[in-house]
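Structure request: PPM-type phosphatase domain-containing protein, Rotaria sordida.
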Amino acid sequence: MSKDTQINERTTSSNDLYLDEPCIKKELYSNEVFGFGSMQGWRKTNEDFSKYLMPFDNHLWKDWAFFSIFDGHNGIETAKNAAHLIGKYLLESFSKLQSNIEIDIAQFNDIVKKTFIQLDKHLREFVQDNSGSIASLIGPKNIYLINIGDSRGIIISKDGQVLSTTKDHKPSVRKEQERIRKTGGHITKSGNDVLRVENQLATTRALGDYSLDKHIIPALPDIIEYPRDSSASYLIIASDGIWDVMNNEQVALFVSQRASNSRLDQIISELFDQCLKEESSDNMTAYIVKLD
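Returned structure:
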């Protein structure tokens, strides 16, 4: 994919979106549990925002951790405000759960979905852009992946096997196509052969933007539960600047082959460099979290 191909934004002039040369300055951080990185790349602005809470709080959820990335589309306001507010919204909602260990998955899913919808209603009061999201809640017994849009999360083994993954919300996905058509929406192909919903978004779910019909493009996450057992070694969540040019298996092997002798933030830095070589044109943000 060249820098002249727009994937995740509304149709606009490429000159408005891209630099003449990529900005390769990286924000990097690492500790004994996780690594983080973000890089602007070819885009004129970095529209990715992130939030982590470790521990999730200092009381009932002190044994939990939360990691999230919000991938802004056509601006930064939704992603920035969602990253700022998501922890508060989730903790308020989780007060309804009776236990932080033996969790009813149906109740958990219902609470998380309602929380994102409530956050979206608040954001739509003042934002005009929109954002995708990939997040993870990590508890003593289970790992939860929560996604809206085309940022992605994977859980991998020590030897680089992909154990679990989120599914992108894109117009090319049959399930999403059927849902959109049932709600009266339309999928069209843009001039650069990218499928778009309502001739605007290249994703089928998003936070923000009051101009979007939320029956067609809802802020409704999918949630995956995976046991925190001996097979799960690393969680990787990343914005679509990574996944546009590398698939799950490639990223899993890239990380696992370096994990034994490199800091996690250094692995992320090298991953960004590789994605640039593969002609990623988008912002890139990622967390790698140790699970064992």
